[in-house]
Amino acid sequence: MRARINQVDIAYDDHGIGLPVIFLHAFPLNRNMWANVTAALLQEQRFRLVAPDWRGFGESEIDGEQVTMELLADDVAALMDALGMQQAVLCGLSMGGYAAFAFLRKYPERVGGLILADTRPGADTPEARANRENVAQLAEQKGSEAIADLQLPKLISDYTRQHHPEVEARIRHMIYAATPAGIAAASRGMALRLDSTDLLAGITCPTLVVVGEQDGLTPPDVAREYAAKIPGASFVTILQAGHLSNLEQPEAFLRIIREFLLTHF
After folding, report:
1. Which of 199, 220, 234, 238 has the highest count of CB atoms within 10 angstroms of its CB?
2. What's the distance, Cα to Cα, between the start and end of the chain in Å?
3. 0.85 exceeded by the pTM?
């Protein structure tokens, strides 16, 4: 499906009837990373499951603007308006989590629940911002294939690489589908994101924090620390998973979020 959102065509999936749950994908993948999760949750027959492609990723357009996390939050809000949703549970992984924090800052009354997977509320360090610019320039100069070669070793665990090469191949295929312009714009946008640590104590909706045991980009200790600052938040570590925990250990990830949704909603 497609919708004209803030002057660009945004592609998205929309299945089911019931509580709206919006899945926000990681960098530099696309909405297909959520396909297994949404297909399984659809069987519950109590959720409306929406998964958009960010600008420049998957099948969504990009208009050349800098893609800040605030702009992504605005896109989610506008998509909710187009779909007739006043409030939703947001499930964001990695960059999807950054966008969820930006959405929480701008539209707190529209957040009915949060699932924050393999992400962090803190802003980038100067070193990390410099690395984001290097990634952006690499995408512009050498394309999405070079980004896949660079990012894949950081995104999945050694266990996944050794035992599930088909998962690595699927992730590579999703990265190839991203436009160099989309990768560059999002990388620079992530570098500019605000520190959202100040929001944590004020979160009142049901919240779940999930992290892969072997996530080197957002380590379990970081996730555990910020989860402790969110009143009543649940925290779960997924064994034998790296940064893309929902793809690396899909059954465990699904079990955890299904239990969260059925318990709180």
Report:
1. 238
2. 27
3. yes
